[in-house]
């Protein structure tokens, strides 16, 4: 009898753990997109769920290593961000919300039951989930969450209501009423593709005890260039400074290095020929972040205040928009002439080749037209009828009566 009671207790505890380790993700891409494609809810692995979250955040390029796993492409097709060809209004912004420690979100907020959703079996713990959220922030909004910020600072910023705006944003709700307030705002603005992850409650969720057994998987992060090596003492004859080996990307499971091991890519010289890595945003919240992230516009322009969003809150990082204003560069050719080069891109790192493009395009069109005319002329000559030989003096003798 005692053994049977112990067995029942173990089974109940196992069921409790299994239920507590299930997270739920809700997605919404607008009423028109939801009506066109309805998808039944199902369960995904943490890796499949991460690929869906990355696609909806617009940073799937950093997570391409796991695209070949079974079920990933189907999960992205079913729950990824959708765009309707015939929708009157496109939800161009992205909002990712994290709600921690809720057992049954649909019971507290029945509105969620109308959205497409999927479950995450054996969901990772709180530390792994917060690490994923900070990584998604660094990948999608590098100007707001640069690499010199620690994970704690990023999480604190994401928990601030000021981070919610008309632009792309990630938010961590402390409770359901706060989440409902942000959800109502997002639906009222009607500009965001909504993604909500409700993490399960439980002891593991506070301490992250299951982070190792249920990871989110491996993915890449924006690369940074290490600064110059510091030398403790100078020799009488100094050797040239050496750069540490450059690392474009590094693998991460759920967390990223702190500011000491991953400094912001700040280059003192604009003459560096190495390309800028990562996805550069169009706007930066401050002049210093614009100059450091773009290497002072790679020496082909300068950072200036593009506009001020009057609708944003005073403390919002999206209020000011600093961007690069590119200028043309001139150089003297060997023949004594001057060649002007125009630049573009978020860091003025892209050379304008529109003149060369149009020259090649017009030359190609001209050659195609010339060949078409030549072939048509030859074809027309072949279609002409040959002259009759009857009236050409070669007919036989006429019979005389």
From TrEMBL:
Residues 1-20 form the signal peptide. Residues 43-139 form the Vacuolar sorting protein Vps3844 N-terminal domain. One of its GO terms (cellular component) is endoplasmic reticulum. The keyword Signal applies. The chain crosses the membrane at residues 357-379. The keyword Disulfide bond does not apply. Residues 283-392 form the Vacuolar sorting protein Vps3844 C-terminal domain. Keywords: Membrane, Signal, Transmembrane, Transmembrane helix. InterPro entries: Archenteron_Induction-Rel (IPR053065), Vps3844_C (IPR024382), Vps3844_N (IPR049205). Pfam families: DUF6859 (PF21656), Vps3844_C (PF12955). This is Uncharacterized protein. It comes from Baudoinia panamericana (strain UAMH 10762). The lineage of its organism: Eukaryota, Fungi, Dikarya, Ascomycota, Pezizomycotina.
């Amino acid at each position: 009898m005692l053994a049977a009671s112990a067995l029942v207790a173990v089974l109940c505890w196992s069921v409790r753990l299994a239920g507590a380790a299930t997270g739920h993700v809700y997605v919404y891409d607008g009423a028109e997109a939801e009506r066109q494609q309805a998808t039944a809810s199902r369960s995904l692995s943490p890796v499949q769920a991460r690929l869906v979250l990355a696609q909806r955040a617009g940073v799937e390029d950093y997570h391409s290593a796991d695209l070949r796993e079974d079920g990933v492409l189907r999960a992205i097709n079913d729950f990824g961000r959708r765009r309707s060809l015939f929708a009157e209004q496109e939800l161009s912004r992205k909002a990712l919300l994290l709600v921690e420690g809720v057992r049954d979100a649909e019971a507290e907020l029945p509105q969620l039951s109308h959205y497409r959703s999927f479950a995450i079996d054996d969901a990772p713990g709180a530390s792994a989930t917060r690490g994923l959220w900070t990584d998604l922030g660094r990948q999608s909004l590098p100007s707001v969450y640069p690499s010199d910020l620690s994970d704690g600072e990023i999480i604190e910023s994401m928990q601030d209501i000021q981070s919610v705006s008309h632009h792309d944003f990630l938010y961590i709700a402390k409770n359901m009423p706060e989440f409902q307030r942000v959800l109502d705002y997002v639906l009222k603005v009607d500009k965001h593709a909504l993604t909500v992850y409700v993490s399960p409650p439980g002891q593991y969720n506070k301490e992250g005890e299951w982070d190792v057994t249920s990871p989110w998987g491996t993915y890449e992060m924006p690369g940074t260039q290490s600064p110059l090596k510091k030398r403790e003492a100078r020799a009488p004859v100094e050797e040239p400074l050496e750069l540490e080996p450059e690392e474009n990307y590094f693998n991460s499971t759920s967390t990223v290095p702190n500011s000491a091991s991953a400094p912001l890519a700040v280059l003192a010289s604009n003459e560096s020929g190495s390309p800028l890595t990562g996805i550069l945003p169009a706007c930066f919240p401050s002049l210093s972040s614009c100059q450091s992230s773009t290497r002072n516009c790679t020496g082909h322009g300068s950072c200036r205040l593009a506009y001020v969003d009057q609708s944003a809150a005073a403390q919002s990082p999206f209020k000011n928009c600093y961007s690069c204003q590119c200028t043309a560069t001139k150089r003297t050719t060997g023949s004594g002439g001057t060649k002007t080069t125009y630049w573009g891109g978020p860091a003025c790192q892209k050379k304008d080749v529109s003149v060369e493009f149009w020259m090649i395009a017009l030359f190609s069109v001209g050659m195609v037209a010339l060949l078409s005319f030549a072939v048509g002329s030859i074809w027309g000559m072949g279609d002409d009828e040959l002259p009759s030989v009857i009236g050409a003096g070669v007919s036989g003798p006429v019979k005389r009566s």
